[in-house]
């Protein structure tokens, strides 16, 4: 049995799948320890997983106050990204050596991860919780959000820094690597590659690809209902009408006007609307929305998806994959990051109607929602994808791939050690 260390981004869209996979590995007898910001300790401990805080002694790393807006916000986000990456680069290697893990499971967004693995000479796996970075997050122009100049600059910085690994993030990472006697991070696939690259994106939800590395694996969604935190919900307020569940995610604070348009679009339909604010806003400011929807700060999403007739979503991968696991059709309103890329795949499979937020109106959303509810073809496609996802066994497939690759690695190392220990016989 192996002891795996996990390096993850702390957002729920990354943590929930990685926690599910970690618990699956524990069921199989392995040990799992998360190396994460100290603030996440209680969250990880509650799921029965090991935890080592990183950043508890963060005095050497600059803490920046967030500015109010403009270009200063972009500079702040870039400084924060680099500062957090450097914190993990400096603190994680010694923590790994103290705990003695055998291999690392690295969230693709944990940019320091592969370098940390190389420093301590540990085999590692890359996990993509969404569309893998090297696939790109592009989408047809009509599905892309309408952005201000500042938003477009921010998007470009994200793609250059994170997806393409160029610019200030690359320079900071390479400076650290050169000091450690390593080459550029761009060469790591040739010098210290991952044992496997596993994505939560299912094969049936991706476009055709002719060239994929032999160590690449489409697994499917990582969902563990028992690992989700208990969230109180006023179930007694559900009145028996068809339920429409609306969630615009937890990472970004969605504009209040979007929730107003969603409520206005649902008014007059014979449905009950439940809006989850993703813990980002106070439900008290939404008490006068049209149609009197049920608005909560956070929601037990999996339980509501089981009851929902349709879902209105930002097209974040977790919500999308979970909705499809229950065979429910969607209206997608992609707002940022990987969401347009996910929405494009949903539209390709004809499981949703995509409405870019820049062109969002209550009338267009009302029309799209009625079509989703009344046209059985959307539910039929969603249920077909549901059957495919269940057949994928995402959690089991990912765990099996990790076990197999790690076993092959250890056997290869053992054989290599035997050969190197054999005495050389000189020929006469």
UniProtKB/TrEMBL annotation:
<dbReference type="InterPro" id="IPR050426">
    <property type="entry name" value="Glycosyltransferase_28"/>
</dbReference>
<dbReference type="InterPro" id="IPR002213">
    <property type="entry name" value="UDP_glucos_trans"/>
</dbReference>
<dbReference type="Pfam" id="PF03033">
    <property type="entry name" value="Glyco_transf_28"/>
</dbReference>
<feature type="domain" description="Glycosyltransferase family 28 N-terminal">
    <location>
        <begin position="12"/>
        <end position="106"/>
    </location>
</feature>
<protein>
    <submittedName>
        <fullName>Glycosyltransferase</fullName>
    </submittedName>
</protein>
<dbReference type="Pfam" id="PF00201">
    <property type="entry name" value="UDPGT"/>
</dbReference>
<dbReference type="InterPro" id="IPR004276">
    <property type="entry name" value="GlycoTrans_28_N"/>
</dbReference>
């Amino acid at each position: 049995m192996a002891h795996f260390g996990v390096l993850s981004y702390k957002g729920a869209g990354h943590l929930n799948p990685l926690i599910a996979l970690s618990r699956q590995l524990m069921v199989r007898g392995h040990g799992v320890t998360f190396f994460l910001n100290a603030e996440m300790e209680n969250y990880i401990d509650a799921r029965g997983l090991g935890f080592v805080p990183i950043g508890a002694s963060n005095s050497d790393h600059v803490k920046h106050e967030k500015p109010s807006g403009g270009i200063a916000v972009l500079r702040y986000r870039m400084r924060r990204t680099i500062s957090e990456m450097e914190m993990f680069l400096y603190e994680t290697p010694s923590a790994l050596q103290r705990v003695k893990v055998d291999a690392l499971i690295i969230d693709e967004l944990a940019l320091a991860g592969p370098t940390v693995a190389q420093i301590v000479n540990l085999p590692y796996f890359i996990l993509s919780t969404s569309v893998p970075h090297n696939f790109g997050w592009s989408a047809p122009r009509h599905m892309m959000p309408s952005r201000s100049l500042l938003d477009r600059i921010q998007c470009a910085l994200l793609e250059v820094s994170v997806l393409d690994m160029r610019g200030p993030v690359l320079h900071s990472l390479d400076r650290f690597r050169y000091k450690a006697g390593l080459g550029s991070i761009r060469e790591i696939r040739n010098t210290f590659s991952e044992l496997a690259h596993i994505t939560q994106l299912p094969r049936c939800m991706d476009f055709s690809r002719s060239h994929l590395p032999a160590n690449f694996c489409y697994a499917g969604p990582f969902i563990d209902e028992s690992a989700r935190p208990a969230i109180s919900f006023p179930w007694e307020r559900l009145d028996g009408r068809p339920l429409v569940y609306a969630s615009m995610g937890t990472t970004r604070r969605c504009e209040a006007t979007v929730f107003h348009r969603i409520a206005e679009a649902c008014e007059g339909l014979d449905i009950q609307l439940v809006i989850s604010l993703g813990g980002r806003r106070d439900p008290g400011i939404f008490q006068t929305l049209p149609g009197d929807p049920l608005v909560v700060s956070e929601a037990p999403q999996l339980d509501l998806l089981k009851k929902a007739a349709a879902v209105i979503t930002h097209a974040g991968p977790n919500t999308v994959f979970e909705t499809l696991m229950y065979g429910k059709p969607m209206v997608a309103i992609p707002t940022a990051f990987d969401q347009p890329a996910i929405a494009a795949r949903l539209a390709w499979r004809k499981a949703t109607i995509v409405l870019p937020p820049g062109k969002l109106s209550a009338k267009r959303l009302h029309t799209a929602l009625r079509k989703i509810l009344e046209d059985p073809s959307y539910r039929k496609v969603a249920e077909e994808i549901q059957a495919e996802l269940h057949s994928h066994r995402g959690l089991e497939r990912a765990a099996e791939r990790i076990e197999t690759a790690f076993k092959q690695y250890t056997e290869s190392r053992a054989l290599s050690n035997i050969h190197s220990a054999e005495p050389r016989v000189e020929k006469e």
